[in-house]
């Protein structure tokens, strides 16, 4: 009986203690909510913007002093408060790009698909900026190139390395540009093009050839009676320009040649035996290329065989002896990119012969880097040509570093930061340090991370902690391996680098005036800040 009474007393004590703990916890939660709400109201009081004039790198445009920026911002940033009509190009860029960064972080945090290159390109185009001013390369063109390089919309996946996938993306971008050029030519010379009712790709190529070869006489696809006048055979011209324009199916239909068909079907990665066959054919053509009276349009056949062979010796010989074949740098780069090879280990011994040593991406990069930036930009008159060439040759880090130094009225340094975000998110910076670069793999990620961090800190100086946090998250992701870092699939060293970077950047936020308040508000709202 006594023991039963003692047990009952113990149960009563335990129940009372549990009840009191629950009451205390409820009281604490209520006091915590009241405290945070009062802090939130205080934080929303207007505060004058602070701009650190000593901050370098990519910076946001200073906002007029009449516009106040909340110390703790969870809604629109200070720049978004300004009427759109009154914004400068720099402010517009920062605003639309910032929106994409928010969407990117949200998607990555929740594990949802997101195409950053496509989104940034769309954001830029939404601005309706037309500042080409006769320049050959615009920022819109660069964003299209970035999208093609990242291959976000492609349904075809070639069985190639990441580096070769980037090369194919650069090539496809140039093909897109050539298609636009052909259409412009046809529209400018409708009578000579004689396109008629034909709307197919092959019909467009033939219309283009009527304009291009108008001085050569009747072309064979236009001849009515071959007995009256021998027609000009344009078979190889058609094949070349179909490939140059990205019309691969049409090129295959015209060619009916196993070597060319294999090149098309494999994305350019032909077997060693096929490469050797193309090399032999190219050698034969070179031996007769100086024949008197031989028509210039036959040289396209020579170009195609050299391209399919992927032979460094043949590619360099063509550039040395027949440099006039390329009238534009785009044609030159397309040929070079198409000739690049990565032969698999353990392949045929034929690839070890001198004539079949493959032309590599590093060969192209080394050649392009012989010329100074001023050569490409015409001493600054066409400033985006140089970074465009660097991106086409998969030299990503040099490209964004160059862009980041081009501030001016166009705000190319703002573009550079967001190009860096795309490249880091896709994890391709390790492929694009450039031939002979002093940067290592981790150095490339660290450089991109530093650029993004520096840009984000501009928001910090403006008092917009929310946007600063968005960019800080990207800075940490960049050094951590891009999108893989969000799911923990990056390697151990990258995960460690990301963790260290996050701690450093969060400390920057907390040490700012209102930083602790901002952190607590984020916690109350259920937002992840670590």
Explain what the structure shows.
- By secondary structure, the chain is mainly α.
- It has a domain at 88-158 and 385-529.
- Helix content is 61%, strand content 0%.
- The protein has 25 helices and no strands.
- Helix 5 crosses helix 6 (162-188), helix 9 packs antiparallel against helix 10 and helix 19 runs antiparallel to helix 20.
- The chain starts with a helix and ends in a 6-residue tail after the last helix.
Blueprint of the fold:
Elements lengths: L1 H42 L34 H4 L7 H22 L5 H11 L12 H12 L11 H27 L1 H4 L7 H12 L22 H10 L3 H8 L2 H8 L6 H17 L10 H11 L2 H10 L7 H11 L21 H8 L4 H5 L7 H8 L3 H9 L7 H14 L15 H21 L3 H15 L3 H5 L4 H20 L3 H10 L6
Helix pairs in contact: 1-25, 3-4, 3-22, 4-5, 5-6, 5-20, 6-8, 6-15, 8-9, 9-10, 12-13, 13-15, 18-19, 19-20, 20-21, 21-22, 22-24, 24-25
Instruction: Specify the biggest β-sheet.
Output: none
Number of helices: 25
Low-confidence stretches: 39-56, 62-85, 345-351
The overall pLDDT, averaged over residues, is 79
Strand content: under 5%
Rough outline: elongated
The H/E string reads: HHHHHHHHHHHHHHHHHHHHHHHHH
Over the alpha carbons, how many angstroms does the gyration radius reach? 30 Å
Number of strands: 0
The share of residues in helices is: 55-70%
Structural class: mainly alpha
Cα-to-Cα separation, first versus last residue:
57 Å
């Amino acid at each position: 009986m006594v023991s039963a009474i003692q047990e009952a007393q113990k149960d009563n004590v335990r129940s009372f203690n549990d009840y009191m703990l629950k009451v205390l916890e409820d009281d604490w939660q209520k006091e915590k909510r009241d405290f945070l709400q009062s802090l939130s109201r205080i934080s929303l009081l207007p505060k004058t913007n602070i701009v650190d004039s000593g901050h370098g790198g990519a910076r946001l445009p200073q906002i007029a002093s009449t516009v106040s920026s909340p110390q703790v911002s969870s809604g629109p940033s200070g720049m978004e408060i300004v009427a759109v009509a009154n914004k400068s190009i720099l402010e517009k860029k920062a605003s639309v790009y910032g929106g994409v960064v928010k969407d990117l972080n949200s998607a990555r945090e929740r594990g949802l698909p997101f195409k950053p290159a496509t989104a940034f390109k769309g954001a830029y185009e939404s601005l309706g900026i037309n500042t080409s001013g006769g320049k050959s390369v615009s920022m819109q063109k660069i964003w299209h190139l970035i999208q093609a390089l990242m291959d976000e919309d492609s349904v075809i996946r070639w069985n190639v390395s990441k580096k070769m996938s980037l090369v194919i993306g650069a090539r496809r971008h140039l093909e897109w540009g050539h298609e636009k050029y052909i259409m412009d030519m046809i529209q400018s010379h409708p009578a000579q093009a004689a396109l008629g009712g034909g709307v197919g790709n092959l019909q467009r190529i033939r219309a283009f050839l009527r304009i291009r070869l108008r001085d050569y006489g009747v072309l064979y696809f236009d001849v009515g009676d071959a007995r009256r006048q021998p027609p000009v055979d344009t078979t190889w011209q058609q094949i070349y320009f179909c490939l140059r324009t990205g019309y691969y199916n049409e090129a295959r239909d015209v060619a009916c040649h196993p070597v060319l068909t294999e090149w098309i079907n494999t994305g350019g990665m032909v077997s060693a035996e096929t490469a050797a066959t193309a090399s032999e054919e190219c050698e034969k053509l070179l031996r007769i290329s100086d024949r008197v009276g031989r028509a210039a349009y036959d040289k396209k056949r020579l170009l195609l065989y050299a391209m399919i062979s992927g032979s460094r010796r043949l590619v360099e010989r063509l550039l040395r002896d027949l440099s006039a074949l390329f009238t534009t740098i785009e044609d030159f780069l397309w040929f070079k990119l198409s000739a690049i090879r990565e032969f698999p280990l353990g392949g045929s011994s034929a690839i070890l012969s001198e004539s079949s040593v493959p032309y590599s991406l590093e060969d192209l990069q080394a050649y392009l880097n012989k010329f100074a930036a001023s050569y490409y930009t015409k001493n600054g008159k066409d400033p985006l040509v140089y970074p465009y060439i660097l991106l086409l040759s998969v030299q990503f880090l040099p490209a964004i570093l160059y862009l980041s130094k081009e501030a001016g009225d166009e705000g190319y340094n703002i573009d550079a930061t967001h190009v860096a975000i795309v490249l880091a998110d896709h994890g391709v910076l390790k492929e694009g340090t450039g031939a002979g670069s002093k940067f290592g793999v981790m150095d490339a990620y660290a450089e991109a991370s530093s650029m993004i961090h520096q840009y984000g800190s501009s928001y910090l100086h403006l008092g917009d902690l929310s946007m600063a946090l968005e960019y800080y998250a990207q800075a940490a992701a960049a050094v951590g391996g891009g999108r893989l870092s969000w799911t923990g699939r990056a390697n151990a060293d990258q995960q460690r680098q990301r963790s260290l970077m996050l701690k450093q950047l969060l400390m920057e936020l907390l040490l700012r005036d209102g930083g602790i308040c901002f952190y607590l508000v984020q916690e109350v709202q259920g937002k992840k800040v670590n």
